[in-house]
Amino acid sequence: MALLLIFTTSLTAINAGLGLFVWHQLHQNQQSIHCLQATVAALRNVMSKQALDMEELKERKAMAEMAVDSGTSSIEIVHRTIANTTFGVLDKLSQNELYKAGTGHLRQIHDGTSQGVYGSIRIANREIHSLADILLKQQSRRNPKKDK
To answer: The domain containing residue 24 runs over which residues?
Structure first.
């Protein structure tokens, strides 16, 4: 009974720590989203009014790319931490080798799928921003910047 109490208390502490970490990451991601929303608004303004010059637009694009990459990494870390905790508990609670082997197989599938998803997000992010670079170059050719 005492072992169960220690185990549940430990899990509660781990979950509290993870909750705090998730809250912190959520706050950072909300700031990144706010930055992205500002960037989108600025991009729309540029497209309709040609208000921002090309260098500022490129900087905002780079900032958006970094925000998506950073947000993806933060979420991946939280996801991996939760998965490691969950699979660790399942492994400890497994009564025989058959269950442990099944849990290990599920973990391999989960980890492979997760790595594929996060990798795909990063690839898509890079490709979208490569396309944005091409579009920006085309736009700058159409509207050459006057010397200051």
So the answer is: 2-142
